[in-house]
Amino acid sequence: MSSKNKIVHSFEKFFLEIGELSYFARRFFNEVFNRPFELKEFLRQCYNMGNRSLLLVAVTGFIIGLVFDLQSRPTLQQFGAVSWIPSMVSISIIREIGPIITALICAGKIGSGIGAELGSMRVTEQIDAMEVSGTNPFKYLVVTRILATTLMLPLLVFFGDAIAIFGSYLVENIKGNVSFLLYYNQVFNASEFSDLIPATIKSFFFGFAIGLVGCFKGYNCKKGTAGVGVAANSAVVYTSMLLFVIDFIAVFITNIFYDL
């Protein structure tokens, strides 16, 4: 196969997968409002994806807060603007760093987990057995997981933001002898709802993308047990790319409203 044919084949495969993912998303929206509502499975997935990700999100957020403050302090000291560190760090974390880093962490942990779990169920014919027994596997396996990621990711983002800001406070307390009350007064004085609302909205889209791609890759897993690893790996790769696309669109739309 020539290089030109390979490129054409790659584009065809890419657009075919985009179409299949769109159909998968449409099927989700068709099923989400139909009975039965698998509430018990939904709550179990919320626990698995939320509670079990807290430690990883906390450690990541704490280190981000420490590193971001330590890296920013020397530059701002040259301009005598050390007092702006709490405002700058908090706004940067709330607007951009917190949501995208937390989403990438969850894409690696949750997205790969969903892809591997559903992929294993597909190749061992558990999904086929559910269909034969009269259960709707899409409703039970896919809808609950996508809803759980959509709901839990904004909560994890809030948690990660708080831990990151606390990590920044510790650096300021040690380096600049800034009290807890003074630091958080500067943080809340600098923060506005216009910073929090766009970040929260795009966090819902991040969570939806993680659940959708992870379920899509796992639910359509092929090629036996080897396909399970491919599904888990591709779920992380495709989700990470999609997160940056969503983030760009969200920032672009937010800037339009700010300009208005």
Question: What distinguishing features does this structure have?
Answer:
260 residues; mainly alpha; elongated
Supply the helix-strand structural class.
mainly alpha
Q: What is the 3D form?
A: elongated
Distance between the termini: 52 Å
Strand content bin = under 5%
Helix content: over 70%
Largest sheet: none
Give the overall pLDDT as a whole number: 85
Strands, count? 0
Number of distinct helices: 9
Poorly predicted residue ranges? none
How large, in whole angstroms, is the Cα Rg? 21 Å
- H/E series, N to C? HHHHHHHHH
Report what the structure shows:
With 260 residues, this protein is mostly helical. The chain contains nine helices and no strands. The model has no long low-confidence stretch (mean pLDDT 85). The protein is elongated and about 65 Å long. The N and C termini lie far apart (52 Å).
Question: How are the SSEs placed, and which strands pair?
Answer:
Elements: H1 3-31, H2 39-50, H3 54-78, H4 85-123, H5 126-132, H6 137-176, H7 180-190, H8 193-219, H9 226-259
Quick recap:
The chain is mainly α and 260 residues long. Helices cover 86% and strands 0% of the residues.
